[in-house]
Amino acid sequence: MTARTKVSRRDWIEAAYQELARAGERGVGINALAARLGVTKGSFYWHFKDRPELMAALLDRWAHERTDEMLELALGSTGDPRERLRRIQALGRDVAPVDRAMRLWARHDAAAAEAVRHADRALLGHITACLDGLGFAPADARLRARLMLRSWIGGYLLADGDDGDPPAGPDADDRALEIFLGGTP
């Protein structure tokens, strides 16, 4: 047996995560994942009872990865609120494909909707804390945080097209952030 044919539960979840980003929730199939991993379906049933168990594990990974690991990595050790906001904004671009898939899945699945709510609460908490650190009043910080998150999400839920918008990237992100922070106390 080669190392490639022996896969772990985590390997199955990671493959499902990648497939979710590529094809959406309905595209996550046991046969496709087994082919991607180079194993038989029997390996899947060694680790999971059924597809719903895999999908529940996928939701758990996404919610906790986004709220814990990804934010921790993105924010690092900087205490500068503006830099933290820039990093959160850049992180949003990096995770956009899977985040988009999760939000579309959440439209018709209660467990996915709860995972999205969990992740959004954590993200809003981080954004609000940054705005608090910049001196915004608590109510203004919460409102701006919600508007920022909605804008970032909307940016990757919109269909790509030639709408005359400047290309996305650090310069556009910096300008958008400055607009959101307009009227900084």
Describe what is shown at a glance.
The protein is mostly helical and 185 residues long. Helix content is 73%, strand content 0%. The protein has two domains: 48 residues, Homeodomain-like (Arc Repressor Mutant, subunit A, Orthogonal Bundle); 122 residues, Tetracycline Repressor, domain 2 (Orthogonal Bundle).
CATH topological fold name of the largest domain: Tetracycline Repressor, domain 2
> For the terminal residues, how far apart are their CA atoms?
64 Å
Overall outline: elongated
The tally of domains stands at 2
CATH class bucket of the largest domain: Mainly Alpha
The profile of the biggest β sheet is:
none
Helix content: over 70%
Radius of gyration: 19 Å
Pick out the low-confidence regions: none
What's the helix-strand series? Answer: HHHHHHHHH
Helical/strand content category: mainly alpha
Tally of contiguous helical segments: 9
What's the count of strands?
0
Your description of this structure?
The chain has 185 residues and is an all-alpha fold. It has nine helices and no strands. The chain folds into two domains: 1-48, Homeodomain-like (Arc Repressor Mutant, subunit A), CATH 1.10.10; 59-180, Tetracycline Repressor, domain 2 (Orthogonal Bundle), CATH 1.10.357. The chain has helices spanning 9-23, 30-37, 41-47, 51-75, 81-94, 96-106, 110-133, 138-157, 170-180. α1 (9-23) packs across α6 (96-106), α4 (51-75) packs antiparallel against α5 and α4 runs parallel beside α7 (110-133). The mean pLDDT is 85.
